[in-house]
Specification:
Blueprint lengths: L2 E3 L2 E3 L7 E11 L3 H11 L12 E8 L10 E8 L2 H16 L6 E4 L7 E3 L1 H5 L7 E5 L2 E8 L2 E6 L1 E3 L1 E5 L10 H18 L16 E3 L9 E3 L16
Antiparallel strand pairs: 1-2, 3-5, 3-6, 3-12, 4-5, 7-11, 8-9, 9-10, 13-14
Helix pairs in contact: 1-2
Length: 239
């Protein structure tokens, strides 16, 4: 049933959700700045699996007291609806965005998970035969020589089932009011949510979509016209 929270009406409706496969990567670096640089690069173009190489986002910063190499870190998530594609996307994102980031290393962020994706050995071949196997904090890792020193990557990364697509639809009297409410919602999610990421820009998506199209049959998703303010005097089913 619907209810009110202060002056806000909370409608009893539904939120879309999709089954996905997920991995969690712990990126460490010489300091938090460079951990975030690598994390942001590795999660770029990751808003929606519809047209991106997986969905990806930054979960949180990790204290050096909780990382395998005792350096500051950032935890990121990568999602895809196909496990084989997720492995490829993860390999690509680490190889292009973490291997290349100054001082960065990549560790398994799901060490207790039994199902694994073996990525480290494949990426280690960048070392052209000079790579070597080692252990850090009981974890099997690869040391890959790079022009700044070594890139360290764990041999395997955990693979779990996850959920994507959860959303809150905010109806407001003005754009400013809607944006303020959305920003507060994202702040609360990041503060209280566990193992959650908000992949869209700033955690907010303004281009809400509906499945399919009224006019273009080949399109998988188009603008959610009943909720577009500029169409409220044009469409019959405006909300």
């Amino acid at each position: 049933m619907s209810f009110k929270l202060g002056d806000v009406l909370i409608e009893d409706t539904f939120a879309e959700a999709f089954p996905m496969y997920a991995t969690r990567i712990l990126i460490t670096a010489i300091n938090a700045k460079w951990a975030l640089v690598a994390a942001r690069a590795a999660t770029g173009l990751g808003t929606s699996v519809i047209a991106c190489p997986g969905e990806a986002g930054i979960e949180k910063l990790i204290s050096s007291k909780l990382t395998p190499d005792q350096r500051p870190g950032a935890a990121i998530h990568i999602y895809h609806n196909d496990p084989a594609t997720l492995k490829f996307v993860t390999l690509t994102r680490i190889g292009q965005c973490v291997l290349t980031a100054a001082t960065a290393a990549a560790f398994n962020g799901l060490p207790k998970v039994k199902r694994k994706m073996y990525i480290g050995k494949s990426l280690a071949k960048f070392g052209d035969g000079f790579e070597r196997e080692d252990t850090i904090d009981g974890r099997k890792i690869w040391r890959i020589p790079v022009m700044e020193g070594e890139f360290i990557i764990e041999d395997s990364f955990g693979l779990v089932k996850g959920v994507a697509g959860g959303n809150i639809l905010i109806l407001a009297k003005s754009r400013d009011a809607g944006l303020t409410a959305a920003e507060k919602a994202v702040k609360a999610i990041r503060r209280y949510g566990r193992y959650v990421v908000t992949p869209f820009p700033g955690g907010i998506v303004r281009s809400g979509s509906k499945v399919g199209s009224l006019k273009y049959p080949k399109l998988r998703a188009t603008t959610n016209h009943p909720y577009c303010p500029v169409l409220k005097n044009i469409v019959k089913d405006t909300r």
